[in-house]
Amino acid sequence: MGEAAGQLVLLDRDGVINRDSAAYIKSPDEWHAIPGSLEAIARLHRAGFRVVVVSNQSGVGRDLFSARTLEEINARMQREVEAAGGALAGVYCCPHRPDEGCDCRKPAPGLLRRIERDFGESLRDAPFVGDSLTDIDAALAVGARPILVRTGYGLRTSEALGDREPEVHADLASAVAALLEERHGG
Question: CATH number of the domain that 13 lies in?
Fold first, then answer.
């Protein structure tokens, strides 16, 4: 891996940063951070990483909440990250339903390619922390480094990995601790 200063780190949202819900996170009031996740993002930020959230949000396409409400949910997340001393370099969401055939819904690489264009750099070897096979497969599609957390759907995902071999951590805080230890020479 090259120089890590300013390196991008990609995070899924639901199940990684905040508690997920089978009924979707449909309002800012339903968004609740997983313990330790905001502090983990702050640690990444202080270490010079640029943190980008990449999330499928088909609740918009399913008319469960509006694009405006999604913006409000993400604004709450950004405020809470900032209150913990962190910052997000970007938030990228696919609002489409799975049956719409878009190129931005993970595991398709569309959102990740957009991030590469927007930041002017490849995501090859960039850590991508997620809790689902779609996160792992999206990371692999662009040569990023898949990291699975056991929060959200991560436990179930870890049982269905097949020949995929991502790094696996208990939660975002432990994944970040490992990234920072690696950066500082173990």
Answer: 3.40.50.1000
